Amino acid sequence: MARTTFTGPVRSLNGFEGAFTSTQIVLQSDNANTITLDAPNSLAASYNFILPGDDGSSGQVLSTNGSGITSWSTPFNPAAPGAIGSGTAAAGTFTAVTATSVGVTNTSSSTSLFEPVAVVSTLTGAGVTGGRAKFDTTINSAAGSFTNALKANVTYGAAGKTTGLGSAFVAEMTLSAGTVDGTYAPLELELTAATGNAAGTATSLIYASVNGSGADSVVNANATLLNLQGVTTGSAGATDMVTAPGSSFVAADLTGGIGIKVKVGANFYYIPLVAAADYQDN
């Protein structure tokens, strides 16, 4: 079919049904340059797209409802992200903390579980990996007093408290009848060092500190380094996580204590713990 050239605007009241056999519509500018609209090859079906009823706003993009109805939508913009959530007490707002970072601000007075941000992943494929939310930080300079990839912080006000257990970070894992193989731990710590790398003067897998003017009078007098719950003391020399004293792991001058089992390489050891009243200072 020969190409038909129009020198002026073309308007169709009923569409261009059966008028063209080419897959292309060519739109020419006021010079020799053109814009070509081309249908893809081997379409699986016929599709009908309905354009929006206006020209949208600056910065908006054309989106679809999956059934051919298109509309203008505003993409996420960290500099002016707008509101999130609707119709609930937990509706919050994305806020631009800086030009390159975004905060989520939520307030709730409800007594039900409050989770302003939830990342839910379900893994079903054999051999699948991941399923995590990732926070990745790369340091390519002499950084300042601290660097972190993830921070968890809870601040209690003058009247604030938790009747149960309060924590800034919680790691939970639920085992099942299928967790017979592999190694499982609610919290995994990894420190990677290649040949030729250097370690700081106080490099460790865990760094813990107590800060503030009341560190000694408040925390030191009332807190503990470790609060282990949910396990009972086993018999001497047994393989329980917490074991009663036995000559195999408790020295002669440490009586009336218990041992906490740890694994170093392929071997198990016990760290002896004794009550203050049972400690004999030699």
Q: What would the average pLDDT be, to the nearest integer?
A: 79
Q: How many helices?
A: 1
**Morphology:** elongated
Compute the gyration radius: what is it?
A: 33 Å
Helix content: under 10%
Biggest sheet overview: 4 strands, mixed
Structural class of the secondary structure composition? mainly beta
What is the number of strand segments? 11
Uncertain runs: 85-91, 247-252
Q: How far do the termini sit from each other?
A: 107 Å
Strand order of the largest sheet: 8-9-10-11
Strand content: 15-25%
Helix and strand run: EEEEEEEHEEEE
Give structural notes.
This protein has 282 residues and is mainly beta. The protein is 3% helix and 18% strand. The protein has a domain at 233-278. It has one helix at 215-222, and strands at residues 24-28, 34-38, 61-64, 70-73, 83-84, 92-98, 101-105, 233-234, 242-243, 258-264, 267-273. A 4-stranded mixed β-sheet has the order 8-9-10-11, with no helix packed on it. The relative contact order is 0.04. Mean pLDDT is 79; it is low at 85-91 and 247-252.
